[in-house]
Amino acid sequence: MLKKITVAYGxxxxxxxxxxxxxxxEKAGANxxxxxxxxxxxxxxxxxxxxISPESWEIIKKNKILLKAPIxxxxxxxxxxxxxxxxxxxxxxANVRPCISxxxxxxxxxxxxxxxxxxxxxxxxxxxxxxxxxxxVMQCLKLITKPGSEKIIRFAFEYAKxxxxxxxxxxxxxxxxxxxxxxxxxxxxxxxxxxxxIESNHYIIDIGSAILASNPERFDVIVTSNLYGDxxxxxxxxxxxxxxxxxxxNIGNNFAMFEAVHGSAPDIAGKNIANPSGLLLAAVQMxxxxxxxxxxxxxxxxxxxxxxxxxxxxxxxxxxxxxIKATTSEFxxxxxxxxxxxxxxxxxxxxxxxxxxxxxIDLKFxxxxxxxxxxxxxFLDWDEDNxxxxxxxxxxxxxxxxxxxxxxxxxxxxxxxxxxxPETFCTDHxxxxxxTNNYEKSIFYNEVIELLKKINSIGLDIxxxxxxxxxxxxxxxxxxxxx
Length: 483
Ligand code: NAI
Fold this sequence. Notes:
Layout: E1 3-8, H1 14-28, E2 32-37, H2 41-45, H3 54-63, E3 65-68, H4 82-89, E4 94-100, E5 114-120, E6 130-132, E7 138-140, H5 146-162, E8 167-172, H6 180-192, E9 199-204, H7 205-214, E10 221-224, H8 226-239, E11 247-251, E12 256-260, H9 277-289, H10 293-308, E13 311-313, E14 324-326, H11 328-337, E15 371-381, H12 389-397, E16 405-411, E17 414-417, E18 429-435, H13 445-457, E19 461-471, E20 474-475
The structure holds 1,4-dihydronicotinamide adenine dinucleotide (NAI).
């Protein structure tokens, strides 16, 4: 069936590599019809601060599938990342990045690497909620949700099942971020039980990344949250031999966007030397997604055969092993000539129609738990008396309500009052904890308001509050470090 897709030529090398890819798709017989939209630099400069006009949005929403070349985000404030906007607006929650080495054609230290990184695409520190709170302290909110985590983790297991992969590994930092990364890891453990045929394990992100860089063949599918995924997917792409051949699919339940991993490479734009492979492999992911597996297979194998023939663009060309340093157009024509041919050194690619079923994750809202308010952390901007915590502590000692009593102060998370360590450096941002006796009694919010009024009346500068809750009787906040 003829499939309508939206195409964005992008900026820098975008138009050159997109023309190359569309030419190959056409010659291979892809059954697609395209609508072209203009997004990126020109849209930004025409006054659309998100880099996209309302008309382009309409076309993307109508066709549901977007093949996008890289775009340039103008330097300076006021311009939002179009990629982040598209991902969030279309609920493209899963970012799928295959990292495969093509040894011995493309040189790499990891000849047997063949893994897929599945990155949560919408939340975490990328919610973009940042504030300056005091003269010295900036804050960026890390939001991890239960449905967001469950969705991406289920997607990873479904992906593994669909593409016959054997193991799913979770990366998190739940030894430090016990609540946010903690829930991601916990949900991973729960969901993994529903897939007993797939092996599962977990690494703390730091050692996980180190092993990824040194022994990537130990991994099959990796699932992780947004920031970690962003970082490790560039590591993964780079150690295959070149970030220039990395492709990515951004998948949601109703929309999908396919693009190269690299940017618009303005330094080589217009020179006909850019490598179109990242975008071409993204187009292959798109063809599998729209169930034109035979065309995807034909293009992917022709591309592998062209590499084997020793015809490569400058970025991956090595004169000691390859024959022809090709321009973008020569490389494109070589791939077209190879359509129908198969590689003999590199592994031939096969995309089976019966396995590329749609992955659709439908989630319900989480079950409601009993929520009780048992205290409040009140954050102050305070800069007096050489920032001596004991001076601030004494001001707060007598402030209380019927059930809330002042307990302690922390600075950058570490307890500084009572009995702080004089060596601890204090900034101008103080967390002051007031809670009910042993967090046992639950209170109404008006006690917090009463407390805030009392603190305000002694001239202290309140910058924010965080309520302390128990859910189903369990404490749902961290204790102070050093406590
Ligand atoms: P970049 O990926 O565009 O370039 C980094 C280096 O790799 C450059 O030396 C470039 O010449 C080379 N390179 C990249 N792709 C290549 C290809 N296909 N063939 C041959 N060589 C290639 O990263 P950079 O310079 O940090 O960013 C340039 C612009 O791209 C920025 O405005 C950035 O915001 C944007 N960008 C856009 C992305 C997207 O639209 N998805 C993703 C990343 C960056």
